[in-house]
Amino acid sequence: MLEEAYFIACKLSISVFPFNTCAAEAVGYRKVIPPFLDPNLKPEDLEYGVSFASAATGFDDYTAEVSNVLSVSKQLEYFAHYKIHLRREVGEERAEFITRNALYIISMGTNDFLQNYFLEPTRPKQFSLEEFENFLLSRFAKDVKEMHRLGARRLIIVGVLPLGCIPLIKTLRGAEGCDKSLNSVAHAFNAKLLQQLNILKTKLGLRTALVDVYGMIQRAVTNPKQYGFVEGSKGCVGTGTIEYADSCKGVSSCSDADKYVFWDAVHPTQKMYKLIAEEAIASFVTNFF
């Protein structure tokens, strides 16, 4: 229902990029997970999983506002609508079974810092960095409680990337290697996120796991060969140091993206996402079976 669809469907993807498809493939689930808002979505597809994901969103609804994407609050509204349609299709009992046994993957947080707190003036005027982190954690807890109310019981959380290792950030900060100050922000937040997740796990009776995407990408950047990469310091597109999103249009790319940790100056390559997805599945197997 919310973010990944493994066999028992559904996903609440609050994530970014092609991660949900990679995770589905990692468990042998070859079918592409359709967006809930896909006009071609068929009723019979509902029990096999849908995605509510919206790239560039975050725990803070203001992150979605500045990026003009769906907020988590809106995604959860769609989740509730999904359940209504699912009940109509498979019946109350089957619908409850699906929602309670589905695997939900939440992958966000990076843009709360990069697109929100460190870029826009609104939140820094309201919160210190520590206060903002606590605000994000309170939003996370609120959202998980709502997911639980709607039936979610098994959650995988993908933590925040090592912000200081993102090529664009290194360029803007004039850093030769990863920017240590920004990495410390991400590392500290992930530790708090895990602590909050464990509290919710105990309080709500959830089965949970946190994917260490921070550690994976940091290792891939500092030692690319460990994961079969050649280049970890810049992206495949253009110079690899400044181009991302719309600025990639009309720009040439490298001949083999699988040799790169990053596709553009911000986003990892499909190969890197697949490695993260495999780690998510390993966490799933370790913690849920």
UniProtKB/TrEMBL annotation:
Transmembrane segments: none annotated. InterPro entries: GDSL, GDSL_lipolytic_enzyme, SGNH_hydro_sf, SGNH_plant_lipase-like. It comes from the Eukaryota. One of its GO terms (molecular function) is hydrolase activity, acting on ester bonds. Belongs to the 'GDSL' lipolytic enzyme family. This is GDSL esterase/lipase. It comes from Vigna mungo.
